[in-house]
């Protein structure tokens, strides 16, 4: 049997202090614990140097009177032009509204034969089982071309506004030169779990996106949704492996060429289609057998073109907002 402790010895034990604290008594360690000072934060010298250079560059622009004068002039012209443009746009919209048919009019688009034509003749005239794909890529193909151009123009606009890796003369930004060797500066450090998951998921995501694009004329899907899926796969790969590895197969030049060829093909293909249709000429592009993968006339290749533009645009937006360039 263990020896019974005296009251004085018991008062020194952990059990006594713990139960005393648990019952609401005074904390026995209050005032008896030495508080050591925290270790001082040591900033990275390279980071401080980079911040100092950025600060000096901003000050140079702020105190550049010539630059500020031009900036003031630009803002004045910008405000005047914006007001005039808004007034012109308002007038244009009001004039357009005045030409719209009255509510309940017999010639209103809702009451005419267009919607019925899509449903009744869509499969026969377009060859697409998916009526929506037949509408947006056949009957209203130029409207979809405009939407694709909007994506391209939006990306170019973001590139102009956010680009940091090159200046107006096309020269590489000095700060970018310093940061390029450290490819992971814009991303999480090498994450083994993320890379393992990305290695498994990225091929599946991209294949699924391709499937959605290729089956857009047969069921739900198409270029916009499939391109978004592929773009998500590219972004996941970029987050896992970094810009350096991604740029082995996708660069700014790749983006420009893909968008150029996709939009050019779309425009030329539908121009041919509308020209032959408007002049009652026979088209050499068959609609194929409805339900087959090679059917729908130009809808399948147009879906591919739209999907490429959407995928590239998603990746470009992400890269631009992430580091100001590809």
What does this structure look like?
The chain is an all-alpha fold. It has two domains: 53-97; 129-326, no CATH class. Helices cover 66% and strands 0% of the residues. It has twelve helices and no strands. The longest helix has 34 residues, at 65-98. The mean pLDDT is 77.
The helix-and-strand class reads: mainly alpha
H-E order: HHHHHHHHHHHH
Distance linking N and C termini: 77 Å
C-alpha-based Rg, rounded: 32 Å
How many domains comprise the coordinates?
Answer: 2
Binned, the helix content reads 55-70%
Number of strands: 0
Q: Point out poorly predicted stretches.
A: none
Q: Whole-number average pLDDT? A: 77
Label the overall shape. Answer: extended
Percentage of residues in strands: under 5%
């Amino acid at each position: 049997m263990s020896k019974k402790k005296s009251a004085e010895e018991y008062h020194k034990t952990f059990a006594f202090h713990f139960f005393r604290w648990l019952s609401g008594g005074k904390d026995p360690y209050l005032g008896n614990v030495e508080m050591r000072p925290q270790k001082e934060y040591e900033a990275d010298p390279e980071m401080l140097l980079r911040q100092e250079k950025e600060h000096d560059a901003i000050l140079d622009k702020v105190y550049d009177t010539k630059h500020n004068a031009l900036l003031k002039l630009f803002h004045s012209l910008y405000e005047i032009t914006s007001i005039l443009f808004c007034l012109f746009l308002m007038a244009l919209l009001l004039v357009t509204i005045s030409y719209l048919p009255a509510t309940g009019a017999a010639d209103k688009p809702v009451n005419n034969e267009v919607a019925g034509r899509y449903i009744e003749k869509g499969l026969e005239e377009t060859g697409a089982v998916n009526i929506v794909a037949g509408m947006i890529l056949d009957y209203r193909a130029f409207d979809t071309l405009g939407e694709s151009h909007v994506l391209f123009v939006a990306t170019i606009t973001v590139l102009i506004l956010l680009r940091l890796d090159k200046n107006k003369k096309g020269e590489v930004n000095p700060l970018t030169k310093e940061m390029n060797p450290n490819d992971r500066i814009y991303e999480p450090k090498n994450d083994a779990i993320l890379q393992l998951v990305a290695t498994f998921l990225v091929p599946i995501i991209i294949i699924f996106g391709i499937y959605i694009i290729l089956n857009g004329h047969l069921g739900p899907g198409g270029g916009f949704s499939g391109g978004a899926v592929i773009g998500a796969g590219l972004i996941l790969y970029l987050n896992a492996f970094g810009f350096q590895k991604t740029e082995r197969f996708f660069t700014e030049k790749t983006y420009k060429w893909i968008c150029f060829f996709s939009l050019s093909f779309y425009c030329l293909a539908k121009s041919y289609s509308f020209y032959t249709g408007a002049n009652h000429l026979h088209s050499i592009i068959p609609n194929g057998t409805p339900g087959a993968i090679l059917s729908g006339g130009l809808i399948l290749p147009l879906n591919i073109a739209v999907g490429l533009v959407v995928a590239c645009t998603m990746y470009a937006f992400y890269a631009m907002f992430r580091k100001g360039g590809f």
